[in-house]
From TrEMBL:
Family: Belongs to the N-acylglucosamine 2-epimerase family.
Natural source organism: Maricaulis maris (strain MCS10) (Caulobacter maris)
Keywords tagged on the record: Isomerase
Any one Pfam family match given in the protein's UniProt record, by short name: GlcNAc_2-epim
A molecular function GO annotation: mannose-6-phosphate isomerase activity
Record has Chloroplast as a keyword: no
Gene Ontology process terms (BP): carbohydrate metabolic process
UniProt protein name: Mannose-6-phosphate isomerase, type 3
Gene3D superfamilies xrefs: 1.50.10.10
E.C. number: 5.3.1.8
């Protein structure tokens, strides 16, 4: 596991110190949305609430793992985000986007954002032992049940924003944060909520004939085809692979067939044959839509392969080593120490002009899975 171990060491010894020094906005507070490729701060851009919540999560979990002193960054980051983004207009829920000085830029209530608020709250609860984080999370879940619940199943995309297409992705992250809340609390009710998303996965998100993950839907969960056909994102297929493994390890039962088919489809149709990395998006038959790579797609490939290895799948550890090699080759090694080249095109040429902070959440996830694998 040469490449896997080298990646894990890079994250702990290089990336975490890099971001501890650069994550916080020294002018207006809060976490920067991105830094320049040389590591200098980017001021004046919008601040997505989900990015702020992801950074809270990263520093909370990294502190708990003993990899950095992230306690104050996590606690202070959440406190400032709560002050700025939670019901600033007197309406329930968290707004979608802030200016870099903390003013509300978009008051939309977005499902995807709220899933990461829930994830941050879970690990702040574990970090501090403060029960108010659990109270806030349960209040937020009640809000989603009350305001976002959709008669066709699942949750609406947003309040005050676009409703279509419906997406599997926010529901996948809702599943993730329910697993997190079960992990930090032991409460089985969170797994019951996760199980409701599994029903959507089995009934709608996975195409039963092709075994691939559908991204976009109409109001009643019928696949929404673009001009290119049905859009498939291999990174999300692989993300579900490790999430299904995590669910199985709670003691609840889930068929291994879903993870097996998703993993196989991603490998059969998602690889860029010219570069060797996992591409960003294709049709269900493997015709490239976005043949380039994002950093997060390669991290999910690596996490999915490690999960399959833990399940005893033949050759999965070797595939994980290939994924780590691709992640290092195209995204980590060409960048400033501690940063990454976040996107390359289908031939491997760099297209990123900044280092987005939101990706740090994905990079942490790999190390967590390496630790689980041993």
């Amino acid at each position: 596991m040469i490449a896997i171990d080298r990646y894990a060491e890079w994250f702990k010894a290089t990336a975490l110190p890099f971001w501890q020094q650069r994550a916080w906005d020294p002018q207006s507070g809060g976490f920067l949305e991105s830094v320049n490729l040389d590591g200098s701060p980017v001021f004046g851009d919008s601040r997505r609430v989900r990015t702020q919540a992801r950074q809270v999560y990263v520093f909370a979990r990294s502190h708990l793992a003993g990899w950095c002193n992230g306690h104050d960054l996590a606690v202070d980051g959440y406190a400032l985000l709560e002050q700025r983004a939670k019901a600033p207009d007197g309406q329930d829920g968290w707004v979608h986007r802030l200016t870099d000085t903390g003013a509300v830029e978009s008051p939309i209530r977005d499902l995807y954002d709220h899933t990461f608020i829930l994830l941050a709250q879970a690990w702040l609860f574990r970090l501090t032992g403060d029960a108010r984080y659990r109270h806030e999370a349960d209040s937020l879940l009640a809000y989603l049940d009350r305001e976002f619940a959709d008669p066709a199943g699942g949750y609406a995309e947003s309040l005050g924003g676009p409703q279509l297409p419906r997406r599997q992705n926010p529901h996948m992250h809702f599943f993730e944060c329910m697993l997190a809340w079960h992990e930090v609390s032991g409460d089985q009710s969170y797994l019951d909520r996760a199980e409701a998303v599994l029903e959507l996965l089995g009934s709608y998100f996975i195409d039963q004939a092709g075994g691939y993950l559908v991204e976009f839907f109409d109001r009643t969960w019928r696949p929404d085809e673009s001009d290119d056909g049905i859009v498939v994102e291999p990174g999300h297929e692989l993300e579900w692979v490790w999430l299904l493994d995590a669910y199985q390890r709670t003691g609840r039962s889930v068929s291994d067939e879903m993870a097996t088919r998703l993993f196989q489809h991603a490998h059969e149709f998602g690889l860029n044959r010219h570069t060797g990395f996992m591409m960003s998006a294709s049709t269900s038959a493997g015709r490239p839509i976005e043949g380039g790579s994002r950093t997060w797609v390669q991290t999910e490939w690596l996490r999915g392969a490690l999960a399959r290895h833990r399940c005893g799948a033949s050759g999965a550890l070797a595939q994980a080593e290939v994924a780590a090699t691709q992640l290092l080759k195209w995204h980590i090694d060409p960048a400033i120490r501690g940063g990454w080249i976040d996107s390359v095109d289908a031939r491997g040429s760099q297209t990123a002009d900044r280092i987005p902070a939101s990706t740090f959440y994905h990079l942490l996830g790999v190390v967590l899975d390496v630790e689980k694998t041993g």
